[in-house]
Amino acid sequence: MKLREIIDCCSELNVTEKRCVSEDFVELVFHTEQIEEWHRILSAFLGDPQKREGQQPTSQDLEITKNTGGIRLEQTLFEKKFENGVIIAKFWPWKDKIHITLRMALLVQ
User: Which of 18, 70, 81, 105 has CA atoms 20 to 30 A from the CA of 63?
Assistant: First the structure.
């Protein structure tokens, strides 16, 4: 699985800022009004969230995200193992309640 395969399925959604799109890391900013559609697409590839917004992160959540900025209470975490590694995706809501940063990483294990 490649991160670009997931991003290609999101091409019809509005991205307000493309900070990084590489083979092993993606960082995009979008508006909160599209969160349900982003959630639907990520769930199709990665399954239900490992950690939902408002849920305390487990020690496993903290460990898997430590090299990508960690995970906090207000964030959502997706995680799925593939033959080439683990893909994690995180929704980082902004305090302005208008924007969300999506960070995805391919972690080779």
Answer: 18
pLDDT in tens, the chain (109 residues): 688 889 888 888 999 999 999 989 999 999 999 999 999 999 999 999 999 999 999 999 999 999 888 999 999 999 999 988 999 999 999 999 999 999 999 998 6
Question: Nearest 5°: CA angle at 40, between 35 and 44?
Answer: 145
What's the 3-state SS for 75-106?
A: CEEEEEEECCEEEEEEEEECCCCCEEEEEEEE
Judge contact between 64 and 108, C-beta under 8 A.
no
Q: What is the pTM of this model?
A: 0.92
Calculate the alpha carbon distances from 51 to 9, 23, 74, 91 in Å.
Answer: 23, 24, 10, 11
